[in-house]
Amino acid sequence: MKILLLGAGGFIGANLTERLVRDGRHEITALDIDREKLDDTVKSGELNYIEFDIRKGDEKLEELTKEHDLIVDLVARANPSLYVSNPVDVFRLNFIENLKIADFCVKHKKRLLQFSTCEVYGITAAKANGLSSAEHPQPFIEDETPLIMGPVKNHRWIYACAKQLLERVLHAYGIEYGLNYSIIRPFNFIGPRIDYLPSEQTGNPRVFSHFMNALLYGTPIKLVDGGVNFRAYTYIDDAVDCIVRIIDNPNGCCDRQIFNIGTPENEVTIKQLAHKMIEIFDKHFRKPGDPTPEIINVSSEEFYGKGYEDCDRRIPNVDKARTLLGWKSEHDLDSVLFHTMKYFVDKHRAKQKEAVAV
């Protein structure tokens, strides 16, 4: 099968591309504007990599779509700080630019594997009704759970709304035009090559990277609004294993299906995550002289800016993936964090050695 991966240079894309190339069962073409996370795979000589911005070349994009059997669309702006600071750009990329990919798939009768987000679920029904989601847990089920967004003034939801609207259009395309699609809703994947550390690069990455930065550089561990919201973390290797099964689509079981990919057993509050990472760092990685970060509370407006609102809880129901694909996560929370932290610790130690050598 000839597979076109759009946005292949991101965290999920790089890990997925590497796995597909290693499996050697398909012909892979990878597109992105940055190949840094793909460098080792590109150097292997087994990957066709094209530096390409989907916003600047519709004719080329359509041609590539026509030449491949499966289009995997990972293109996204997936960073909460951008939802607040650059909401229009977030909408344009996550909906308008992605929609034209779906249009090309319809035109040329290609299967589309569309990456969405668990944020389409929004806030829990408990929070919407003034209740505590900690006391009223609500597993998110792909084809049943209502999708509840906050008010328009909280424009943080523009990302989730763009992704939700794209899902609804794909569903309509399936009904009216016969588009064969599968949609993936990732639940907090982490692992090697996720994001970057803010002390090494400007920007505002996801929470793991902020906490990892604090452990390595001594910056404060900032708990946004007290860190009371929940997340359930999934190791990237487990996630990629599920994605590959969806790509393989045994007996067409994934046709026009939406899949949660997550690990409900690994649920933790952000505050608990901070203490868990400190515990693992102290046990496995701490060396004399390493800084001890201070834990502080900050408001979401102070951290992200005006217009931010958080998802209070994300519990993935993954019965569909287990039933149709025979998939389950293999890594518990401690294992997920250890392997991901080790990647960043090893990189940091290597940089320290290089600096001393110079």
Features:
7-stranded parallel sheet, 358 residues, 13 helices
What's the arrangement of secondary structure elements?
Layout: E1 2-6, H1 11-23, E2 27-32, H2 39-43, E3 48-51, H3 58-67, E4 70-73, H4 80-85, H5 87-108, E5 111-115, H6 125-128, E6 139-140, H7 158-177, E7 181-186, E8 189-190, H8 207-217, E9 221-224, E10 230-232, E11 234-235, H9 236-248, E12 257-261, E13 267-269, H10 270-284, E14 295-298, H11 300-304, E15 315-316, H12 319-325, H13 333-357
Parallel strand pairs: 1-2, 1-4, 2-3, 4-5, 5-7, 6-15, 7-12, 8-11, 9-14
Antiparallel strand pairs: 10-13
Helix pairs in contact: 1-9, 3-5, 5-7, 8-10, 10-13
Kindly give the count of domains: 1
> Could you name the CATH topology?
Rossmann fold
The sequence of SSEs as H and E is EHEHEHEHHEHEHEEHEEEHEEHEHEHH
CATH superfamily: NAD(P)-binding Rossmann-like Domain
Number of DSSP E strands: 15
CATH architecture, by name, is 3-Layer(aba) Sandwich
From the alpha-carbon coordinates, what is the Rg to the nearest angstrom?
A: 20 Å
**How far do the termini sit from each other?**
48 Å
